[in-house]
Design brief:
alpha+beta, 2 domains, 3-stranded antiparallel sheet, 22 strands, 22% helix, elongated
C-alpha cells in the first residue's frame, strides 16, 4: 500500500483536532477571563531508505540521504495567557487583573483552584465567591450593613457602614502566579489547577513585585481575536482539503496500477 494514504490520514486527523481547538476558542469569545489555546503539531517518524553519508562509489559518499516522513501528530495544546480586553461594568464586585496573577478559590474537594474571572458575588454569609459559589481565598466577608464597597489596586477591600464616611478594611485580595501558567490543568468553570508542569504557586500582593494590579468595576474578557481565529479556521479547512485530495490521488494511482494488463 502507498504510504501517502496513511500519511494523509494523519494530516486529516490533526486538522480535526485543530478545528476542535479553534471552535472552543470561538465558543468562549465572551467568557470572562478565558485564555485562548493553540494546537501544536510534530512530524512523525521517518523511514530511512539510505542514510546521509552512505558510500555510493569508491571514495565517494552520498551528500544527502533518502528519508520518507510518515505524517503528523499532535504535540500539545498550549494556552496563551495574553491579556484580554477589559469591559467596564460598574459593578463594585467585578474586579479585573491588569498584568500577571490569578485569584485563588477553594474548590469543593478542599483543594485550591486559580482563575482570572473576577466576577465576584456575595453569598448568604457575605463571603466573596465566584459564580459557582467557590469562596475567594483568603476569605473576605462583607457585612450585611455595608453601604459602600471599595477595592484598591493593591487588593485592599474597604467598606463604609450606614451613613458613616469612615472606611473600614475587611480584608485583602491576594494574587498567585506560576512560573509556567501554560502547564496549569483546565477544570472548566474558568478555573485552573496546579500541576507538576506549572510549578509551585507564588503568592503576593497586587501591584507589587511583578504582580498585576486590580481594577474595580472592570472585567477582563477573553483574549480571543475573532479575525485571527477565522483565518486559522480557513487555514485548517484548506489543509484538511489538501490532505483528502492526497488520499484521493493515492487511490487513483493504486487504481491505475490495479488496472494494468499484460
Amino acid at each position: 500500500m502507498m504510504r501517502a494514504l496513511y500519511t494523509s490520514a494523519t494530516g486529516m486527523m490533526a486538522q480535526q483536532l485543530n478545528m476542535d481547538v479553534i471552535a472552543n476558542n470561538l465558543a468562549n469569545v465572551n467568557t470572562v477571563g478565558f485564555k485562548r489555546s493553540r494546537a501544536d503539531f510534530q512530524d512523525l517518524l521517518y523511514q530511512e531508505m539510505r542514510p546521509a553519508g552512505a558510500p555510493v562509489a569508491q571514495g565517494a559518499q552520498s551528500p544527502t540521504g533518502i528519508e520518507v516522513g510518515l505524517g503528523v501528530k499532535p504535540g500539545a495544546t498550549q494556552t496563551i495567557f495574553e491579556q484580554g480586553t477589559f469591559q467596564n461594568t460598574g459593578n463594585k464586585l467585578d474586579v479585573g487583573i491588569e498584568g500577571e496573577g490569578f485569584y485563588k478559590v477553594l474548590l469543593p474537594d478542599g483543594t485550591n483552584g486559580y482563575t482570572r474571572d473576577g466576577a465576584f458575588k456575595r453569598d448568604s454569609q457575605g463571603k466573596l465567591v465566584n459564580s459557582d459559589g467557590f469562596a475567594l481565598q483568603p476569605e473576605i466577608t462583607v457585612p450585611a450593613d455595608a453601604s459602600n464597597i471599595s477595592i484598591g489596586k493593591d487588593g485592599t477591600v474597604s467598606i463604609t457602614r450606614g451613613t458613616s464616611n469612615t472606611p473600614e478594611s475587611v480584608g485583602k485580595i491576594g494574587l498567585t502566579r506560576f512560573s509556567n501558567p501554560a502547564g496549569l490543568e483546565h477544570l472548566g468553570g474558568n478555573n485552573f489547577r496546579e500541576t507538576a508542569a506549572s510549578g509551585s504557586p507564588t503568592e503576593g500582593t497586587p501591584a507589587q513585585a511583578g504582580f498585576g494590579s486590580l481594577s474595580q468595576g472592570i472585567l477582563e474578557m477573553s483574549n480571543v481575536q475573532i479575525v485571527q481565529e477565522m483565518v486559522n479556521m480557513i487555514t485548517a479547512q484548506r489543509a484538511y482539503e489538501v490532505n483528502s485530495k492526497a488520499i484521493q490521488t493515492s487511490d487513483e494511482m493504486l487504481q491505475s496500477a490495479n488496472q494494468l494488463k499484460r
